Amino acid sequence: MVAEALPKSPGAPLVLGLQPAALIDNVAPVDCSLLDQIPGDRGGSIPVQKDELEHILKELKTHISAVPLKKMAGGSVANTVRGLSVGFGVATGIIGAYGDDEQGQLFVSNMGFSGVSISRLRKKKGSTGQCVCLVDDSGNRTMRPCLSSAVKIQADELNKEDFTGSKWLVVRYAALDLQLIQTAIRIAKQEGLSVSLDLASFEMVRNYRSELRQLLESGNIDLCFANEDEAAELLRGEQEPCPEAALEYLSRHCRWAVVTLGAKGCIAKHDKEVVQVLAIGESVATDATGAGDLFASGFLYGLIKGLSLEECCKVGSCSGGSVIRALGGEVTPENWQWMHKQLQLKDLPVPDIRN
């Protein structure tokens, strides 16, 4: 079917995000009793069907009467490009599709209000994806995305004009969207863009490792982000699955490789240089949702500004540290101020934001 595109804004965004399906996050603080009732590993991200999503949302209403459910545009890529736009003043855009429903309108409004170019989003007849993000007392999040019936952009809908003039393409690994991802990367490379890949989740790496490794070994990924769990899955069964070994593997195929280590900070490699940077901010997260996504925002900002590898990691740690101070993957204005203060204290460039 022919998808409806929003009117284009002048000038190409510096950073483009590919998120096949728009997504609304339903974020709620929960106790262990509710988590025990939900199938699947705690702390992971397991897709659910629409009836399962509705059941969880219904359970939440009876559990969290004191704290309202927070609804916001979500998805790893959306979090990263929104963070770059709002927190760092970088021109960003997003490629994807949203449904002709209330959730779709909320996604478009939230991203547009955040300064992200929405002209590459296609409106389609159908529903918009949703995800339940359950946050426990330790700030760890358990995700249950429902995308099975959500409208998506297809590989044959991408065109050269979507990418022309941009410098970076931000992608999240998803085996079901592999054809779309490969097409986007091919066009991006033809148009001279660099590609940043996030490994998504340890389940995604575990279940679709050979396809992922093929993608990484294609030589088309310039920058790769993995967290500690994803790094362990990447090399499981072959050698000691430690972050350092995963970093070494990633750096053989990508110009920049980063493994984030939660409260322990991160390790990164570019050419022969290896750095380790400690985490910045709270030792205990209010909510870890979006920490990796916002780390990527800061790291990309550092690369765009021509900072050193260590400085890129420090900026990433500051922005990753800003989002975990409140619920959800969207940084509050107060926490952006906190981040800018951290940058100042560490002698790092503070973005000139004029809202």
Describe this structure in words.
It is a single chain. This protein has a domain at 20-75 and 92-152: UDP-N-acetylmuramoyl-L-alanine:D-glutamate ligase (3-Layer(aba) Sandwich). A hairpin with a 5-residue loop joins strand 12 and strand 13. It is 38% helix and 21% strand. The radius of gyration is 19 Å and the shape is globular. It contains 13 helices and 14 strands. Mean pLDDT is 89; it is low at 1-9. GO terms for molecular function: kinase activity. Belongs to the carbohydrate kinase PfkB family. Residues 65-328 form the Carbohydrate kinase PfkB domain.
- Contiguous helical run count: 13
Radius of gyration: 19 Å
What's the story with the biggest beta sheet? 10 strands, mixed
CATH class term of the domain at 20-75 and 92-152: Alpha Beta
Organism: Arabis nemorensis
Domain Carbohydrate kinase PfkB: 65-328
Keywords: Kinase, Transferase
Pfam families: PfkB
Concise description?
This protein has about 350 residues and is α/β, with parallel strands linked by helices.
Which key phrases capture this entry?
globular, alpha/beta, UDP-N-acetylmuramoyl-L-alanine:D-glutamate ligase, about 350 residues, 4-stranded mixed beta sheet, about 20% strand, 10-stranded mixed beta sheet, disordered N terminus, 13 helices
Give the arrangement of secondary structure elements:
Elements: E1 4-5, E2 15-21, E3 23-29, H1 32-36, H2 50-63, E4 70-74, H3 76-88, E5 92-99, H4 102-113, E6 121-124, E7 129-135, E8 141-146, H5 160-163, E9 168-172, H6 178-190, E10 194-198, H7 202-207, H8 209-216, E11 223-227, H9 228-234, H10 243-253, E12 256-260, E13 266-270, E14 273-277, H11 291-304, H12 309-323, H13 333-345
Parallel strand pairs: 2-5, 2-9, 3-7, 5-6, 9-10, 10-11, 11-12
Antiparallel strand pairs: 1-6, 3-4, 7-8, 12-13, 13-14
Helix pairs in contact: 3-11, 9-10, 11-12, 12-13
